[in-house]
From TrEMBL:
<keyword id="KW-0472">Membrane</keyword>
<dbReference type="InterPro" id="IPR045584">
    <property type="entry name" value="Pilin-like"/>
</dbReference>
<feature type="transmembrane region" description="Helical">
    <location>
        <begin position="7"/>
        <end position="31"/>
    </location>
</feature>
<protein>
    <recommendedName>
        <fullName>Type II secretion system protein GspG C-terminal domain-containing protein</fullName>
    </recommendedName>
</protein>
<dbReference type="InterPro" id="IPR012902">
    <property type="entry name" value="N_methyl_site"/>
</dbReference>
<keyword id="KW-0812">Transmembrane</keyword>
<dbReference type="Pfam" id="PF07963">
    <property type="entry name" value="N_methyl"/>
</dbReference>
<keyword id="KW-1133">Transmembrane helix</keyword>
């Protein structure tokens, strides 16, 4: 007499486990991509905010030199008055993941990985250049090093 067994076979259980595992991997990949995009959005937003305030410094002083960002190679968050007066939270404007400043060589930031927002060129009467790194594409920016200057984001 044959008994009718109830339950799942080993093959059925393995197929379900494989499908659940695949879905978990896809969810992790999507989440990491979303996090990277969120960090890049924060980077661009922070640098646009700094750019707006640098233009305010220029409109009131007819020079970027008086911004309080006096040395290339230092973090933008260390800029002093008057920029810190226009942007009181400047000391907290930092890259979401990087803590070291970008390496600057002859006015060019040369890092190939995320680094803190850095003064690339000492502000002068008519120019300044701050650099930041994006991990992926955002808007018309590709992955890599970018700058803000009087010309905008490049």
């Amino acid at each position: 007499m044959l008994k009718n067994k109830k339950g799942f076979t080993l093959i059925e259980i393995l197929v379900v486990v494989a499908i659940v595992g695949l879905l978990a991997v896809l969810a992790v990949v999507a989440l990491n991509s979303a996090r990277k995009t969120a960090r890049d959005t924060e980077r661009v937003g922070s640098m646009k905010q700094v750019q707006v305030e640098m233009e305010r410094v220029f409109s009131e002083n007819n020079s970027y030199e008086l911004s309080g960002c006096t040395t290339s190679g230092v973090a933008v968050s260390s800029c002093a008055a008057p920029l810190s007066n226009y942007l009181p939270g400047i000391s907290s404007i930092k890259d979401p993941v990087a803590s070291k400043t970008c390496l600057v060589e002859n006015g060019v930031c040369v890092d190939k990985a995320p680094c803190d927002y850095t003064v690339a060129v000492d502000p002068s009467n008519s120019d300044y250049k701050f650099c930041f790194y994006t991990e992926g594409e955002i808007g018309n920016l590709t992955q890599g090093m970018h700058y803000i200057s009087p010309l905008g984001i490049q």
